[in-house]
From TrEMBL:
InterPro entries: ALAT1/2-like (IPR045088), Aminotransferase_I/II_large (IPR004839), PyrdxlP-dep_Trfase (IPR015424), PyrdxlP-dep_Trfase_major (IPR015421), PyrdxlP-dep_Trfase_small (IPR015422)
Record flagged with keyword Transferase: yes
Identification of the protein by name: Aminotransferase class I/classII large domain-containing protein
Lineage: Eukaryota, Sar, Stramenopiles, Ochrophyta, Bolidophyceae
One Gene Ontology MF term: L-alanine:2-oxoglutarate aminotransferase activity
Species assigned in the record: Triparma laevis f. longispina
One Pfam family it belongs to: Aminotran_1_2
UniProt keyword terms in alphabetical order: Aminotransferase, Pyridoxal phosphate, Transferase
Assembly and oligomerization: Homodimer.
Gene3D superfamilies: 1.10.287.1970, Aspartate Aminotransferase, domain 1, Type I PLP-dependent aspartate aminotransferase-like (Major domain)
Membrane-crossing residue ranges in chain numbering: none
Highest taxon of source: Eukaryota
Family statement: Belongs to the class-I pyridoxal-phosphate-dependent aminotransferase family. Alanine aminotransferase subfamily.
């Protein structure tokens, strides 16, 4: 093996070393780079330094973004005089290569371009990311009032003589309850590594009420958004480069990014666009068999429900199919349920994997499950608060103790995020002073999301050359587009995906910033983009007109 060869102090590589290496890397290297290195190694030996340089080039998947950022920091360093010109020992080829290769499309090339245009004074509408407050959604009053009172020193907050004049009684009571749960040290101190016990008890009660089955606070880990929970679990799962995680195609790119970062392999299972982005037993099995035939060990499978970027809400039967598949194949199910409250389609309902697992326990006895939830989505949208939790269900106790160890190494999740999560799972009670306003604010957000989801999909489907499945849930529409072959050829020449060419053109023409669909993965030959429907109604209505105007212009330009 190549690494053994290097470990033996060898600085020349022969063709066999390289072939073994390429066989181990499988899909992680660009096909054209494989041809190049094989040609170079033909009949001769390669110098290790040359090989290293080739490897960096061969795995430059996000080169435009990487080099742009490097230039930016270079300029910054020059201005401050804090960076000297001498070569650095920690550089592009010696750094952690997994990090260099990692890609994250939601904040990728198109967004960078949008930020540049905005700095130049152009109006940009950021529909690239599910970040509701950034596009005008108002925070829910009750949450902010409790958070403020928890943060204020008691003499300026809950114990201030005028407190009751400024805050509703149930807010004050809740802030006192939270202060008590955290302990005398307040919001500025570390908490226990899994999160404050009282908050975890409230989360367990929320899950029990939702699913009708028991939940133990000891199995809850509070996290910085769902993201840090997903990262912790993947860190515990991926042991080496043959360990694989099945992810939906299309997927939310935190999965592909973290799998790359941790040096594992992703195995995509395609969702069926023609059938409302549903998942089939056959597609799962085919991908598992293929992965195993390539020597991969599939350890986990991510299911996103409601879906991002696809917006589908899985039926109970679909959730059961995935649970059963995981159970039968000894695969840990990672159930990403951050959009569980974002269900808009009439007749559709969210089914948690935990509920399905426990309702049908006799058939799913050995299901190992981790479910994720977050305060960033739903009707709350407090993305910057970084609140969330994960529930471990039927996970090996030794493994769970190691996940606890990992949480301990990070000390604890942010305390404001923990408070936010406790409020999410225990909203104001009926009869309390805040209840009416809270209910009004929540239903306004829900009605607005429902309305915009419908209006956007309808508007997109009215454009010739654009087709979009219903946004049944989540915060996104994920249309596919037809564009002229000439545009596809131009994109290839620019070494861009056709949908990146399209998204940049859309941005320049209209100021709408969407994410090219290729950033999420999609069926071969499909072209599309993802847009949120979070900006206000009038902005979304104009956006639909702009999508139409741009599509016609684009098709005309490349006709
Ligand atoms: C499916 C899905 N999972 C997880 C996350 C992570 O969100 P957060 O870390 O803010 O909870 C997102 C964010 O958009 C998401 O769409």
């Amino acid at each position: 093996m190549l690494f053994d060869a290097i470990g033996d102090g060898k600085d020349i590589l022969n063709k066999k070393d390289i072939q073994d290496f390429l066989a181990e890397c499988k899909g992680n290297i660009r096909p054209e780079a494989i041809d190049e290195i094989e040609a170079k190694a033909e009949g001769t030996c390669l110098d290790l330094e040359l090989f290293r340089k080739w490897l960096v080039l061969a795995t430059k998947f996000d080169s435009q973004r990487n080099s742009k950022m490097a230039k930016y920091y270079g300029k910054l360093g020059e201005q401050s005089g804090a960076i000297h010109q001498e070569p650095k020992s920690w550089n592009e080829s010696t750094m952690a290569q997994n990090l260099r290769r990692m890609q994250y499309a939601v904040r990728g090339q198109v967004v960078m371009k949008a930020e540049t245009l905005m700095a130049e004074g152009k109006d940009i509408i950021f529909t690239n990311i599910g970040n509701p407050h950034s596009v005008g959604q108002k925070p829910i009053t009750f949450y902010r009032q409790v958070l403020a009172l928890c943060d204020l020193p008691t003499e300026y907050g809950v114990d201030h003589p005028d407190c009751e004049k400024m805050f509703p009684l149930d807010v004050i009571e809740r802030a006192r309850e939270i202060n008590g749960a955290i302990g005398g040290s307040g919001t500025g101190a570390y908490t226990g590594s899994q999160g404050v016990l009282k908050f975890r008890q409230d989360i367990a009660a929320f899950i029990e009420a939702r699913d009708g089955h028991p939940c133990l606070p000891g199995n809850i880990f509070m996290t910085n958004g769902a993201s840090s929970g997903i990262q912790a679990i993947l860190t515990g799962l991926i042991a080496d480069m043959n360990d694989a995680v099945m992810i939906p195609i299309p997927q939310y790119p935190i999965y592909s990014a973290l799998i790359a970062l941790l040096g594992g392999r992703q195995v995509g299972y395609e969702l069926d666009e023609g059938k409302g982005w549903s998942v089939s037993k056959e597609a799962l099995k085919a991908q598992l068999d293929k992965a195993e035939s390539e020597g991969l060990r599939v350890k986990a499978l991510a299911m996103i429900n409601p879906g991002n970027p696809t917006g589908q809400v899985l039926s109970e039967e679909d959730v059961f199919t995935v649970c059963k598949f995981c159970c039968e194949n000894g695969i840990v199910l990672l159930s990403d349920e951050v959009y569980q409250r974002n269900v808009y389609a009439p007749g559709k309902e969210f089914h948690s994997a935990k509920k399905v697992a426990m309702d049908r326990e006799s058939e799913l006895r050995n299901l190992q499950l981790v479910s994720f939830h977050s305060t960033s989505k739903g009707l709350i949208g407090e993305c910057g608060r970084r609140g969330g939790y994960m529930e471990l269900y039927n996970i090996d106790t030794f493994v769970q103790s190691q996940i606890y160890k990992l949480a301990s190494a990070g000390l604890c999740s942010g305390v404001n995020g923990q408070i936010m999560t406790s409020l999410m799972v225990k909203p104001p009670a009926e009869g309390g002073e805040s209840f009416d306003l809270f209910t009004k604010e929540e239903s306004e957000i829900m009605d607005s999301m429902k309305r915009k989801a419908k209006m956007l999909v309808k508007g997109l489907n009215e454009i010739e050359g654009i087709d979009c499945e219903d946004a049944e849930g989540a915060m996104y529409a994920f249309p596919r587009i037809q564009i002229p072959q000439k545009a596809i050829d131009v994109a290839r020449k620019k070494k861009q995906s056709p949908d990146t060419l399209y998204a940049i053109s859309l941005l320049e023409e209209t100021g709408l910033c969407v994410v090219p669909a290729s950033g999420f993965g999609q069926a071969e030959g499909r072209i599309g983009f993802r847009t949120t429907f979070l900006p206000p109604d009038d902005v979304m209505e104009n956006a639909v007109q702009d999508f139409k105007r741009h599509h016609e212009l684009f098709c005309e330009k490349y006709a």
